[in-house]
Aldo/keto reductase family oxidoreductase (Clostridium pasteurianum DSM 525 = ATCC 6013), 280 residues
Amino acid sequence: MVKSINDTTTLNNGVKMPWLGLGVFRVENGPEVVNAVKEAIVQGYRSIDGAAIYGNEETMGKGIAEGIKAAGISREDLFITSKLWNADQGYESGLKAYEESLKKLGLDYLDLYLIHWPVKGKYKEAWKALETIYKEGRVKAIGVSNFQIHHLEDLLKDSEIAPTVNQVEYHPRLTQKPLQKFCKEKGIQLEAWSPLMVGKLFDNEVLKEIADAHNKSIAQIILRWDLQNEVVTIPKSTNKGRIKENSEIFDFELSKEELEKIDSLNQDLRVGPDPDNFDF
């Protein structure tokens, strides 16, 4: 059971990944990113999740540097993720994009590098690039994002190295049970993006009732549900109070009945694009 912000899951290659992290999607490049990242690190977060397409890797890097200094920790204490964008999916272009991300972030290596979306006809070449970077010891772990079961099956057919992580949209309205089961069987860690469904669940009566019973916020209930389902979670916030609140999920536990109640909210409803039907 996940008991503290320092707890980690061990990926299929032995690398340890924190259960809770901060996401920086849709956080404007500038002081907002710097402050959010620094604040999270000072408050005990050790995982920061970004991507090339977010357009804020430079300021994310600055926030990491300031956070390391302010918290008195080392780079090795952190788990930093970035993602290969669709336009750069290919072998040479994938290698180049990785170097570009490192340069922008001001880092020597990443802990996790993901293929951002399963672009048809491109993700296998991209995966070869990630395998090369991994084999050369320049990244601690490689994985994918937004891959459905059939994408994973296709990738696993020809890959030398299995993905360590699959980061997908995951929240009480999109529980992705078959995908989670498949990933578990294959030793791939599921990770949730948009775990709070961009605030669309904050007036849900079922969640409100459970939150009241534990004297917690609905956000805290959802994040705890993630962890008890063995899903890594990376809520986005730039608000100091909410960054703190999102990390205060280790002093209570949801009952089996409560977990089932939350599971029953599933409607296979997405707030983001459909991985089987996107055009970017």
Notes: The chain has ten helices and ten strands. Residues 29 and 56 are 4 Å apart (CA to CA). The two ends are 39 Å apart (CA to CA). Strands lie at 8-10, 16-18, 22-23, 47-49, 79-84, 110-115, 139-145, 165-169, 189-193, 232-233.
